[in-house]
UniProtKB/TrEMBL annotation:
One Pfam assignment: Aldo_ket_red
InterPro entries registered for this protein in UniProt: AKR2_Oxidoreductase, NAD(P)_OxRdtase_dom_sf, NADP_OxRdtase_dom
Protein name: Aldo/keto reductase
Span of domain NADP-dependent oxidoreductase: 16-215
Source superkingdom: Bacteria
Gene3D superfamilies: NADP-dependent oxidoreductase domain
Length: 287
């Protein structure tokens, strides 16, 4: 698989990275299957694993911790805090480390910051960002990150206020048409040297009909890697197949693809663009 530099960190990762939200009972993935999928991914060179404590009440983190075992040093682990306060975020991190069976994570993210009001809470004197800074100073985390699904202006403001190391943002082909992180966020983020991770690549399954094109579109953007949710060995193998044969989309290919999917730019598909969208809705979805 093609590898790319990960911002200013000095690291590089394959274009295909592992979104661990789906290796849980809620997606009909057993613990045994989850462990097998994760280890198969590592065998194939995938080393970047993204999770969060709210994914099935910590089960995603627990299964990653069990799956890594003595291979922990071979992987880059990312978790998040949805809490907007310093103290709440510290409690969240302590619980995450216990479930992940580790004493540190490579990245810790402010999870799903949607509005300027939420951003202000994170940046307050006793806001969540204070916990991230303290954890980095103590060596418990190595890099500070944030994520955003909804409005790129929020993430643009965030990276103007603080030198984040990375950002996880919605970069499906359907996102191209409204509140586009590809248009509005990527240029400045790249200029600042952030590592950029794409998500929502298959649009909660709504782009499944165009599965390979959807992957190629996101990987053709100036990003470091993209996390893809995987709940079965079949999905992992299909993702590996497409990644290994990846060729960037030409401008003409992108234009033809946009013509095919422009009707998908609607509230039913792009629910994460709405301020009142709940992550719980996503848990019920399949890739």
């Amino acid at each position: 698989m093609e590898k790319r530099k990960f911002g200013r960190t000095g690291q590089e990762f394959p274009i295909l990275s592992f979104g661990a939200q789906r290796i849980v009972d809620d997606h009909n993935c057993t613990e045994e299957e989850a462990i097998q999928i994760v280890n198969r991914a590592i065998d194939e060179g995938i080393t970047y694993f993204d999770t969060a404590p709210i994914y099935s009440n910590g089960q995603s983190e627990e299964r990653l911790g069990k799956a890594f075992g003595d291979r922990r040093s071979k992987v880059w682990v990312v978790t998040k805090t949805i809490d907007r306060t310093r103290d709440g975020s510290w409690r969240s991190l302590e619980a995450s480390l216990k479930r992940l069976q580790t004493d540190h994570v490579e990245e810790w993210r402010l999870h799903d910051v949607r509005t300027m009001e939420q951003l202000d809470l994170c940046f307050a004197k006793n806001g969540a960002l204070r916990a991230l800074i303290e954890a980095k100073e103590q060596g418990i985390i190595k890099h500070i990150s944030l994520s955003g699904h909804t409005n790129p202006n929020v993430q643009l403001e965030a990276i103007d206020r603080f030198p984040f190391d990375s950002a996880l943002v919605a970069l499906s082909a359907a996102d191209h048409f409204i509140y586009s992180f590809a248009h509005e966020f990527l240029p400045k983020a790249n200029e600042k040297g952030l590592a950029i991770i794409g998500m929502k690549v298959i649009g909660l399954g709504r782009l499944a009909q165009w599965y390979e094109k959807a992957l190629r579109y996101t990987w053709s953007l100036p990003i470091s890697t993209a996390i893809i949710g995987m709940e079965s060995m079949e999905q992992l193998e299909n993702n590996l197949r497409v990644a290994k044969s990846f060729k960037p989309m030409t401008d003409l290919e992108k234009l033809e693809f946009f013509k095919e999917i422009i009707h998908m730019a609607n509230p039913d598909v792009l629910r994460w663009k709405a301020k009142d969208w709940s992550n719980k809705e996503e848990w019920a979805e399949r890739l």
